[in-house]
Each structure stands twice: as structure tokens, then as C-alpha cells.
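Self-study notes.
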Amino acid sequence: MFRLKLFIAPIFVLLFFIITPGQSQSGDLEAESLAKFEFALIGDVPYNTADFWKFDNVIKEINANKKLEWVLHAGDIKTGSSLCSDELFQDRLERFQQFRIPFILTPGDNEWTDCHRFSAGSYQPLERLSRLRTLFYPKAEMSLGQSPMPVITQASDPSYPEFVENVRWMKNHVMFATLHIVGSNNALASFSARTQADDEEVKRRIKATLSWLHQTFDEARARNARGVFLLFQANPGFELIKGDRRRLGFEEILDAFEQESVKFGKPVVLAHGDSHHFRVDKPLLDNINKRQIKNVTRVETFGADDVHWLRIIADPSSPEVFTIHQEIVEQNLKKRSLF
């Protein structure tokens, strides 16, 4: 009996040390999954050649911040009147690839919808859209940046194989997604060479957007996400009354934002560019009760000549989840010396 006790005791001690660290590690992993993290948001940059130095400063600041997980760009990588050439696209791609962390771009109207303009080169917009997809989304399930990260793409859906730009990912119980929604009335603005193919593209893209939006919220609910962050380019006219012509191309999407946000009931951020006016507000209304939807926050980026960036903290343990900080680049407030 004495020998048997000696034999059992070491086994008991060994099991204690094997099981206890495992339980502790599980607790650490759970704590880590709710840890807060930070990322950068920019948009409508770089616009003008004269401001390239400002964008370089933004890149330097973001690269120097070791807490940032990724960079989000809300579209419009050029002015609406500048040339939509392959050379310009390549220039922007090379600039974006200077970011050391993952970089995710959602397209804007300036880089394809408005390329029919004479000053932009009189391009066929759908041809430019195809070129954008080829250049800026070379690997459908990976971001850009020097350290790309994996994402889920809508292109994996057989119904929407061309939509490589619509992506989704999740970190620490927070869901992120991009939606291809652009200015110029979501590409419905008329132009002299407009064809039926242009009209059909808008219909299909809105259908794809709605599908991706609903899937994103379905996934967020299924995985008990603490918050949802959606990125797109256009200012869809949140403040305008339903039926206003300036909401043309956006009505169905705005309705979906409202319905899904109310159903989700947790913090939702709708981030965009387009207007070149930094703001954080709550413009989304419940069309039935005409009341502000409190769990939805709109964030519009700095843009155009106002070349700065936003640092966003996501804290899954906080009731608000998202906190937005202005990062003013002091050097960009000064005029550049010619000497």
C-alpha cells in the first residue's frame, strides 16, 4: 500500500501542473480576444501633386505608430478632374505600399465613375473599374501593405465573383467590412457617353452591396460581435429627407443601414469620405419613429487639402466600443518651403 501511494502522488502532482496552466492559458486567451486595439483611417488622399509631401508625412506618422493594426482608406485617391491613367494608378499603388502594416482601400468615384470627364482622360468608367480591380486587388483574399493580412472577399461568392473590393474580417469580437458605394449618386450621374452597361453595373453593385451588408450583420450576430465597422466612400446624404434626389442611388442602402443597425442593437460605425469635412455624429434616423438611432455613429475622414488622419481605438469591453481621435500632422499645417 505504501508503494502504491508513492506511485499515485506523483501522477496527481503531474496532472495538477498540466491542467492548471492550461486553464490559466484559456483565461488569458479569452482576455486577449477582448483586448482593445487601434487602427488608422484616411480618405480623399493624395489629391494634388503639390500635396504629396503632406501625404508622405501621414505615412511616416502611421508607420511610426507601433500600436496600429492596419490602415483603412475611404476612397478617392485623386481629384475628379485629374487624369485616370494607368501611370497615376501605379503611382498611388506605390505610395500605398509604403505602409508597413496592412492597407485596405475601398474605391471612390474619382478613380473610375468620373473618369469619363475630358480633363480625366475621357475614359470609359467600366474599363477603369476593371483596371482598378486588377491593380489594387491582385490577391483577392489578401490586403495591400508591406505586411498584408488575410480577409474574406465577396468574390468568393459565385454570385458576385467580380467584387474583390468588398472584404470582411474580424478581430477581438469586432466585425469590419468594406462596401463599394461611391459618389456621383453611386455612379448614376449622367454623362454623354453613358450606356446601358453603366446602368446595369449600378443595379448589380447595389444588389451586391446589400447582400454583403446583410451577410456581414448576420455573421456579426452569429459570432456575438461587440461592434460593426463599415467603410465606404460616398456621403449618401444621411441628413436629407427620404426621396430627395440627392439620395438617388443610396435609398436602398440607407434603408438597410437603418434596419440592420436597429436589429443589431450594438455600436455600429459608418465611415466614409467624399465631402472633405471631418466629423463624428449620429445622423441615421429611424424612418418610422423619426428618431436618432443612438447605436450608430458616422465618421467622415479628413480629405483633399486637409491632409491628416484618424486614430480609432476599438475596445470590445467598452459599451461604446469605438473611440475616434484626430491626429493632426503639425508639419502639414505649415506652408512648404521652396528652398
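Second protein, same conventions, sequence then structure:
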Amino acid sequence: MTDFTVRHPEEHERRPTQNTAARAMHYRPLTDEQWAVGEHLLSADRTFGAYEDGEPIGMTSSSAVDLAVPGGQVPAAAVAWVGVRADRTRRGVITELLTTQLRNCRERGEPVAALHASEATIYGRFGYGISCQAKQVVVDRARARVRADLPVTGSVRLLSDTDARPLPRALYRAIGLYRPGMITRDEPWWRWGHDRVLDRDDCLVAVHRDDQGTDDAFAVYRLATLGTVEQPVKGLEVLDLHAANPGALAGLWRFLLSVDLVAKILAKGRPVDEPVDLMLENPRAAAVTGVADHLWLRLVDVPQALASRTYGSAEPVVFDVRDPRLPENEGRYRIGPDGVERTSAEADLALDADALAMLYLGGWPASALAAIGRIRVLEKPALTRADALFRADRTPWCGTNF
């Protein structure tokens, strides 16, 4: 066992600690130029480092965001930069880091933590569950003719370099968090996740404007070499795309499909129900080449998190929640259209914290989780009621890398 301490980094330790996490994820240490932007991305009081003899051996951090949930929003911690030095793994470092972080989030009044997992086998044991998935789509432009009945609700223009920075910021705020799982983006995120990407990848930004003259969608994309090493092809890679309505979404895709001198369009991390294929005369021209876990959630304060969303119309269900890592969450909860309360009544369904997180945004029906053993059924009719209670109006999706 390694002797180490977990604490906030001192000011002079911030960059070495963050570089330790970068190395753990096989990135190069931050250059001076990157650090000039990256040092504002994470605050010291939300960062925890693991230190051995004064040297950083691991790190985790988070940012304060609002997370869209069915019926509203909830304060959340967007967890990132989780890593342990390669020669100090499997010694309890990550366990101490993440447990300390979860308790800190609870103390801050953030009932939910969220992350994108670099490895899918790590976070379940800390109570994180896959709240939603995302797909990767590749469109063969030569075969992708847009259907004649696809709505035309405005026009698309390319932004100048001057407008490519501020306008997507304003549009993202104006469009709002239109799916459960989406999060707010603060200014440090925009500097790191948008401005830096524009400079690094020579990206272009397209904006859709409706017939009334209001901007209502944007897409960030870049030229890319797609295909295989043996058969490379010119293509476009869509990095960020948000639309206020189906007409705006259709308009952006119509534009992307019209760009000359490219053979394929690649869009990663898109909503699983985004109907790109149905916009085309030949739906097979848009192939889903992968579906993977997208956003992982952890209910840090179960009563507060459950009370922060709304529920469908069904008779209440009593859930017995098991959470040995945060035992204050354990107990029985009566969940119904009128809200949530602790109860001593007999449980209808029993589950662990990670399975509850999978239910939370409505991405997984309780019946589907019960069928694979993630929920223990004590009263069978309760499954149908639980499906109705947790169902969301829209398929959850995050759409923001962090």
C-alpha cells in the first residue's frame, strides 16, 4: 500500500498535479500556451490531488454546472481530469480521490455528479451509472440525397472568424438545455472546449437562421481524413451541433450534406434518436457505426436528487436503495407524481446506487434493468408503474465534452 495524502493542491502544485493526470490519460503535459487557458478551467478548491512525499501521484477535479433533468434542472458537479500515475495504480489512490470528491460535492449542495468515462469498468463501483448513450454516424455523401419533403425553415451561413467565438456561446444559452442530461457551459469551458478547438483544428462554424431572422442552431465542424489507412477519404467531422427545433436541425444537416469535395461526414456522440437517416432518400447512406456509453451519473444526495425532477402519472413505488459508499443515502423512498419521501413501508423494488442513476434521467426503463438483474423485483406490478414514473419526454443526451 502506498502512503499518500489527498488534499487540495497548493498554488504552486496545480500545474504539476494537472500534468500528472494528463500523463495518466496518455496526453502530453500542458504547454505554456495551453496552461494559460487550462489553469482557469479547474479551480483549486474543486480539485483534489493525491501526494506521496510531496509529489503528485493522482488527481480528480470538477466544475459546477446545472444539469437538465425531467421537469427542471439540478446543481451538479461535472467531474473531469481523473487519473493516477501509472506506477501508483491499484493501490487505493483512485478510491480515496473519488470518495473524497463525492463527499465534497455533497457538502457543496450538489446532489448529482456527472462524468464521461475513459474506462467503463471503473466508475460503477463508486455508484456511477450510465444515464444515457450516444451514437456515431457516418454519412456517405455520394448516396445521401435529402428527401424532398424535409422541412425548409430558414437558411444557413458560415460565421467569420470574429463571430465564430461569441455567437455559439449566445446560441447555446438561447437554445437552452432541451434534453435531460445536458449541462450549462461556463466561460472557462468555452475557452478550452470551443476557442482552443477552433484554433487547433481550423474549424468552421455554421449557423441556421429561421424565417423570422432568429438564429436557432449552430454546428462546429472541421475537414478530416476519414476511411482507413489504406483507403483514406476526405470528409467532414462534426464536433458540436445544437438545434432549437427539428427544422433547424434539418437545415444544418442539409447544409453539411451540400459541402463539396468531401466524401463522408462523421458525427460522434450524437443522440441515439437523432433521425439523420430518415432525412435521406436512401436511409442506408447514414450508417450508425457505434453506440456507446455517453454520460455517467452519480446521485450524491439521493433524497435531494430525486426531489429535483418530476415524475409521470402512476401509483407510487417504494424503492429500497443500497449505497455502501455513501450510507446516508440508504433506505426506502416512496416515489410518485406528488414527489419523494423516505418511508418505512415495504419495498416494491430494490436496487444499488448505480442502477438508480441509470433510471434518473429516463434513459433506461426499470423493467429493462430488472430483466438483467440490476433491479430486484419484490412486487412485480411495480415495474410497470416505475417505467411510467421515470419516463422522460425526450431521450437523454449530454452533448458537451468535459
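Instructor comment on the second fold: The first strand starts at residue 5 and ends at 7.
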